[in-house]
Amino acid sequence: MRCIARREFFVINIECEYKQYHQIKKELIPYFELTIEKENKCNWCISLENPKKSYDDLYRIREKKGIGIKKIEFAISNKRKTIYITEPNDILMKIYTVSRIIRDMFRAELVRRGGIPIHGGLVKNGQYGIGVIGERKSGKTTTILALLAGGFEYITNDDAIICCDNNAIIGYGSNRSISIRRDTILFLDRKIQDVVALRHSNYLNNTELANEAVFIKPRELNNMRVCGKVENLIFIFPSFDDLQEKPILLPISNYMIREFLIKNLEDTTMNYFPQLLNGLGYKRIDKNQYLERLRMLPIDQNKGFMLKQNLSNHTDAVPIIKEVMH
């Protein structure tokens, strides 16, 4: 059967069995809409079926093996505009691979259209969004989880992409799993601990990485709303300080917002399937191009704050953050 995944300007066909359609849909919603309908021949198709031997234009692409995946290989037909997943063989891993390809193609298309990839996450409360931006171990994930426990909607924990549309900054998220370090879990709000304690379906929880972190798919955030993008962004740059008795928010200038964004530029769009995306016409963007995009970003209407906190009082930051959103 054929179905189509959509997200704004992005459309891709999927060829699969009916049961697989429902499994793929669970992986993609709410970031992508998936519907059963006739193939759109103008767009590429991802197929879970094996290519026929009679196809004379196939060429193979092999990616580096991933964690828990011994072999990743695709057969491409430009004539049919079809990507066949020949490895891995396991059907659940094929479905996971479909989800990743669609995620990364959409992100690569966003970047090609002027998006800026940032090492940070996004949450939403009402009409406002919060971009939580920071280096590893800065408290980014902890802050996002505290905001979720405080009633915020989830967009993404990593791989945020910010774009300019009609002189407004928009933040986009993706269906990437949230990784929470095990040494952090004990300090989290009880509501988040309850979510983390559940059994989660991400296959990474069955690899050696599970010794260090728990991996949660966005759809497994029980009783928490998940959405794909946000406008009216406020930027928060967290940092941990063991001597900080209570969290404080320090306003920063537009110049400093831009400098912090530059510091946290991180393009992961080509990390998982670089050969495949290359074959589909996507190219890595030069850092100087990203710097130029950041220089032109209209952040005059956006607030920015440094958040100073320690791990034991991170939930106390939530009401302070809510105050600056009004």
TrEMBL record:
Q: Which Gene3D superfamilies does the annotation name? A: P-loop containing nucleotide triphosphate hydrolases
Q: Which domain of life is it from?
A: Bacteria
Q: What is this protein called?
A: HPr kinase/phosphorylase C-terminal domain-containing protein
Q: Which organism is it from?
A: Sellimonas intestinalis
Q: Lineage of this protein's species?
A: Bacteria, Bacillati, Bacillota, Clostridia, Lachnospirales
